[in-house]
Amino acid sequence: MLILALLVAALIPMLLDGLAPFSALLDFPLARLTLILALVMGCWNLNALRLRLLLAGRGGSRDRWRAQQDGVPTTPSPMDRALTRFSSTPLGQRRAVAMVMATECATCATPGGSGGPLTLMMLLKRHGVHPATSSGIFVIDQICDMLFFLLALTAMGGYALLHPNAWPRPELIQLASAVLVMLLVMMTLLLMYLPRVLRLSRAPLEQLGISQANRRRLSRHMLHFRQGLAITLGQPPLRLATIFALCSTHWITRYSLLYLTLDGLGVDIAWVWTFMVQMLAMAAGQLSLLPGGAGGVELTIGAFLLPSLGGETTAAAILIWRFVTYHWYLLAGAPVLAWLARPIIVAGGERRLSGHYTGT
Prior knowledge:
There is one protein chain. The protein has 17 helices and no strands. With about 350 residues, the protein is mainly α. The two termini are about 35 Å apart. The relative contact order is 0.16.
């Protein structure tokens, strides 16, 4: 699926204007491309600092005790030793950046970004962070993103009222805002009434054939998950404000890349319009079954830019923008992911070999 996604991401711009966009790529300023890649690295550092603030020193003995309460063996296996190798070491900025790059690579390489949260939980477990705690951190991170986009859409709605002629499709802002509000309300209600939801889910889970022990383990994980959320939200207001400021800075920087790409191609366009186009393109990419939203992202960008920019410029913009926001994430993140996951892969191989020789 990843190979198919890479082919689709390259073929759609070619369908817009053949091989002509590649000649425009040769004229793209190298200094501008270097600036864009530097901004991508800056985004990784911002997310790494946000991750360190979200952790708030969690990990170590308390999370290992919770793991034992959830049925994890007290005697560590080779896999467990590999997973908790860095549990006594504070998470520094360099390793946090590596974890962010690996997580972004896994997100881009899997359908719907499903591999991102799992990779993050695997890497955080090596620092002694319980999976329920890391999943709670991930949810808080997603809530920060939703709040930022909701505020951004509100600001864009005001801009559309002041400049009605500069905004071709104002109804898109209303639709995107309604979807974000609905998601935030659903997540808030689920977290507020989680114990009641767990009680009501007993009968359906029992009908699915899930044993009582597994239901209790699942409930314990969910309660630890909510406790992790409560600990994160219970941090000092200044820390929470800093986390949200880092989130906002990251997305403003990330969604400025299309504007910088078009500006490098000599196109004069409003920054706020490119911001909205990227939001809609990434949302459309989530509906695609291919990794990285291939197909949906390119078609959405092309649909908005093609009428005003023409085929050659639109295709060139898509090629450059997708390279720095998709292909570069895979190229730079894959070696880091392999480096971070190597101890776990080796430990898993040793466990399989030991099981083979002992006949288990």
